[in-house]
Amino acid sequence: MNIRLSYFVPCFLYVTIVQSSVPYMTMNGGVKMPAIGYGTFLMMNETVLKIALNEALKVGYRHIDTAQFYMNEQVVGKVLHEWLSSGKLKREDLFVTTKLHIINEFPNKVDSALKESLEKLQLDYVDLFLIHFPIAVDLTKEGGFVPRPTDLVGVWKKMEEQVDLGRTRTIGVSNFNITQMEKIMSHARIKPANHQLELQPYYQQRELRRYCRKHNIVVVAYSSLGAPGFYEFVKAVGLDPIEVPPVLDNPEIKRIAAKHKRSAAQVILRFVYQLGVVVIPKSDRKNRIKENFQIFDFSLDRNDMKQMRKLDLGEKGKIFDFKFLHPEIFDHPEYPFAGLKYRKAT
């Protein structure tokens, strides 16, 4: 049975439930995004990703988040092609996001970059194409990055052309601050439909969420569960990670989880969703892929939400400073997190 129910969530973004009780948030231009997606950051092992993504699709995930930077679009494409060519899914059943790599963040590279992504994904179009980070870089012979002057408005104009050409249904940004958002908004013919950003209990991004709500920009949260795998990644590239206490071990979250007979992860994902934000949890474990998806059959009450909001540490709770891109990234004029310039890793 195909059940449709419309209502308003706390952020006042219009939401519609369509099949399987998975809510959809409607973006600028009328494009609907499932309120939960499957994230693929740091999933570069082909076998692991194939198994995990197949499991996610079996569970019911229809929103798949990838990026040129993740170096896994080709694997994602293989799995999606198998599901589409076999008739198990139709293209319109899926919502696929990819992102412009920072090495392609130049007006003359946007066109070819998205065409390459579409070839790897074996798709005629993506549903959402994002500017991944507001700083362009050149790639060195050694494989490192060198930050370069960044023409955000020029890049955005080329992003708009991709919509005109039918290569993406809509466009947005990721990891931008409000000043950068204003720069785009003041020159945009097609307004950003989405902003993907770090959002978890210790870093709740209230001001940026208010800005996005005001302009009807749907927010997608990455690393809502604290990104435990990211610490190992940072260490692997020879840097000291910013140490933030594991959010899944927080006593208050565990208390709320016990009250609802749910896991800490489910409580966190439900909290973020009740803020009016789309979640894209990542896991390669079958039980957790399923568990993370099961957040729409319970709700947190007013007191639960109040206690969860109290966990916000502001910038002290932020995990990603992007120093792994370049040791002097903080000095770039477009570095989006000004307050982190003076925060030292512990």
Q: What features would you describe in this structure?
A:
The structure is a single chain. Strands 5-6-7-8-11-12-13-14 form an eight-stranded parallel β-sheet. The protein has helices at residues 46-59, 73-85, 110-121, 152-164, 178-187, 206-214, 228-236, 251-260, 264-274, 286-293, 302-309; strands at 4-8, 14-18, 23-26, 32-34, 38-39, 63-65, 95-100, 126-131, 136-139, 145-148, 168-174, 194-198, 218-222, 278-279. Helix 1 packs across helix 2 (73-85), helix 1 packs parallel to helix 10 (286-293) and helix 8 crosses helix 9. It is built from eleven helices and 14 strands. Helix content is 34%, strand content 18%. The chain has 346 residues and is α/β, with parallel strands linked by helices. Residues 1-20 form the signal peptide. Belongs to the aldo/keto reductase family. It holds the Pfam family Aldo_ket_red. The active site is at 70 (proton donor). InterPro entries: AKR (IPR020471), Aldo/ket_reductase_CS (IPR018170), NAD(P)_OxRdtase_dom_sf (IPR036812), NADP_OxRdtase_dom (IPR023210).
| Shape, per Cα inertia axes | globular
Strand content: 15-25%
- By secondary-structure content and strand pairing, the structural class works out as alpha/beta
Low-confidence stretches: 1-19
Distance between the termini: 53 Å
Strands side by side in the biggest sheet: 5-6-7-8-11-12-13-14
Keywords: NADP, Oxidoreductase, Signal
Family: Belongs to the aldo/keto reductase family.
Protein name: NADP-dependent oxidoreductase domain-containing protein
Domain NADP-dependent oxidoreductase: 45-311
